[in-house]
Amino acid sequence: MVVYNGIRCIEGILFIKPRIKFANNEEEYKKLLENQAYIDAMKARKFGINCNDALEDDAASREITREDILELIEYLISGKYKALVVEDIYDITTDLEDLQNFIDTVQSSGIVILDLRAMTLRFNDYDEEC
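Request: output the structure for the sequence above.
Response:
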């Protein structure tokens, strides 16, 4: 069990969409990616989420494939993780319907999503008519 500032942390996984544009070689790229993961993990810890693992989306496009989304969901529902930490929720997808479905699927498994750009937990807030 990891405790940070008196808070018992839950186990989370980082989903990293590298924003590294310039790296001279593979070694430099890996070092920059490790730094990015370290910074993200420290931010997550302030929310009570301990991230020792990370998944990297190394695709060149902004969108990840459905296969990658399914793989990410499989990682999450394995039971090891209670939180998904992303730098930006739109790193998952910019298609709003796909994003809502992803959030619903993840949260129905009891997993929270921390968006570091907004510094908040993400939920689908559906308007309910009275």
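The chain has a mean pLDDT of 82.
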